[in-house]
Amino acid sequence: MNRALFRLSLACLAMFVLLLLNVNYVQAFQANSLAGEPGNSRVFDQQFQYQRGSIIAVGDGSGHEVTIAGSRPVKGTNTYHRYYPSGPAYAPVTGYDSIFGKTGIEGAEQKYLAGTASSLTVHNLIGLLTGKPKQGATVNLTISAKAQQAAYQALLNEQQQGHDAAAVAIDPRTGAILALASVPTFDPNKYTTLDGAKLDKIDKQYRLDPAQPLLNRAINATFPPGSSFKLVTSSAAFSTGKVAGPNATVNAPQPFTLPNGHQLNNDNGQICGNGHPQVIEAFWLSCNTAFGQIGINLGGATLRDYASRFGMNSSNLTIPMPVSPSVVPLNTDRSLSAYTAIGQLDDQLTPLQEAMDAAAIYLVQSVQAPDLSTIQSASPSVLSQAVSQQVANEVAQMMIQVTQNPAGTAYQTAGPPTLGNSVVIAGKTGTAENGVNNVGLNDAVFTCFAPAASPTIAVGVIVKGGGFGADAAAPIAVQIIKAYLGLH
Amino acid sequence: MTTISSHPAARPAADAVVAMPRGRRQTELLMLVFAVGVVLLAYASVGLGLNGKLPAGIAEYGLAFAVIVFAAHLAVRRLTPWADPLLLPLAALLNGLGIVMIYRLQQSGRNGNPGFQISTMTASSTTQQVLYSALGVAAFVGVLAFIREVRVLQRYTYTLGAAGLFLLAIPALLPASHSAINGAKVWILLGPIKLEPGEFAKLALAVFFAGYLVAKRDVLALAGRRFLGIDLPRGRDLGPVLIAWAASLLILIFETDIGMSALFFGLFLAMIYVATQRTSWLLIGVALFLFGAFVASNLIGHVGERFDIWLHPFAGLNPTHNAYQLVQGLEGMGFGGILGTGLGQGQPFLTPLAQSDFIVTAFGEELGLAGLMAMLLIFGLMVQRGLRAAISVRDPFSKLLGGGLAFVIALQVFIIVGGVTGLIPLTGITTPFLSQGGSSLVASWALIALLMRISDAARRPAPQPIQDEGMTQVVRAG
Q1: A64 backbone dihedrals φ, ψ, rounded to 5°
Q2: pTM (predicted TM-score)
């Protein structure tokens, strides 16, 4: 029987080897994915027993770092409590950290904030050996506190007038996001309670609020870009050679009869220049008829192609929170491409995309992927090739006229009358007709960069129902730029 | 070379497997001191981990545990002086760690944070487990004292077989109110008495299988028809395997206990294989098992559900519903990682039944992969010592019984540890020596006693030659 017993021993050995391999798999290899399982109570409970990493805005340079989310010990217990020093102002950035879930940076950078990222393993091990209490990693954000506060204050004014609004500022050189604000918003401090029933009540209140305070309008809501899309149309026109340059003249009858018989009008039915303006004049006056004509010449496919080069129609942009795609659908109908060209019909952009448009014009040839966090010193990454140097210069030249030419749409609100000689902003207004049969109030849009000669900030602003882009959106952008550049 | 075989080292090479000649009781004592030391340190570590203080009653519990195991050692010195020196320390270490974990789970959370009080545990769980350990060691000593030769059990082959079947059948015959906990109808519940007769049936049936197979093995090994290069047994000899299979299925159906059912059938197959050395029996057994499992998974929803939980623990509603326990166990182990959280510093109490079926995941969480592997190796070593005794003992009945008992430890550990770590479908059986509960602990100690008895027989030196004034000498020519 010994031979059989030997074989039985081998079977026992095999069983133990299988068990050993399996526990190795579970505890060494699967550990990270198990920790990431939704509803993992241990990881969940742990987050209150260790100091979660802070979120810091470092966009104003060293010495001006501002903590926008931190954790402090609760007296007499074994737990830490999350707090947000200026909660609502940064809510669209930080999101919240609640016992139900996490949003914004709190959710997107969870593994760093909680200290579970695999890149922190060695650090944690050293901490374990030296007896240091476990701690999450600090996440540094590219956010500029100055720009963010200015954006939030300016948006609050709009909220008091009953408007939803959002603003995004980007450093066009790197794609770093300097400000990301949205109103109406919420107070993330209210989400930090450990009382499930209380939290449920607060959450329900926010979720059922018709004003949608939890919606991050800067990246997760889209609006028609209106005339600000003429920036893309111009780029396409110059790049393809369909229009020779800013000084070429374009036919701009009022009204302009589309191939399908519909009539396209300028704002208030005004005649665009002399009816045959140069493109640059049509741009600063923001003539729909001129750009409608250009749109028909370009065709829907070309317009969509250039929109995509600016980063639209992409559904996988993350900053690191996922950004809703900005959509410029393909219109093969020649008449409808006139609407596409002036940012109407089905065009839908996020405020972030508005800022990216302006940033792209400065950036000459590429669109930088915007990024919020610098934890692993996020290196600027190129999203796409937009336009050539020459075209960029030409479009920039036109955008400067929008604020500097006394007839430009934003001369009064973003030009010398408000700013004097302190800074030159290059921008484009948009006033998008809205709703079925355009009964809704117009959405005000402004996209710009400054200083025009060597830009350090690009801003996109959308005020829903705000009326004229120059009146409602441009002043917000001006506030942000002034705060960021330190102008008074 | 001509020597008097007074010293066993000089025994002929035929028995070369028997390498260790002396009793090795000193080794055993040393290892026991080590085991008690590890257990006491672990116990202290629980208190320090929970609230930075040594746990209350460390002296009392420690002393009680030390007294229990050293009593066992004294009994071994007297009753089985030649037995394997590792089996007792290994069993004592596992038993002690089990008590420590049960104490730890009873305390629950950290730092005056009571955590979740485990509803299936009471304030006296630890004391009870210590008492059960004393009972277990008493059973150990009792078996050593009353069964001086394993072979005497052979006389009671059929009595024990009937007893085993009866023990197995009791829960099925009792009304559910006296036999079912959480759906598994495997208990005898009479007032304060709570017995799991299957644990004892395991031992009785192992003896029965050994006795029966030793008697019938020549017949069972007869070859019948040849099929695909395998000698099939004769049709008329299929009876026993069919009966064992049917009994296993009955347990499955009437007691909804897949683990026990698989354990019995696996034990039977291993023993029939060892007795006959015929692979065909294994193949027939495995085929029957697969067929039974297939039918069961289709007929009994409970079984099919187990498969689903095993394959997709994280799918759909599983993590919060059917697979909650498994998922909690896995997440606990993952949370412990390689080095563990340290005793008292994890949250093993989040896993339902962490003190019984899932105790291994609690160790995995707090002692980490390193600790859990060490514990599995302790089990492995225990099995290896048992098999070694079986291989070296000469009497076929002892050989077969020893092999079966050692295998049943391995299989039970495989079924429960594999189940809670997601290797195989989960079935609720106890973890030998670790799980809370008296029946399992007492049966495990009795099992170790039988292995000790077999090992003692295997290692006992040949009888001293009778020195009759130089008249008769056992002389060997080298």
Answers
A1: -120, 25
A2: 0.67
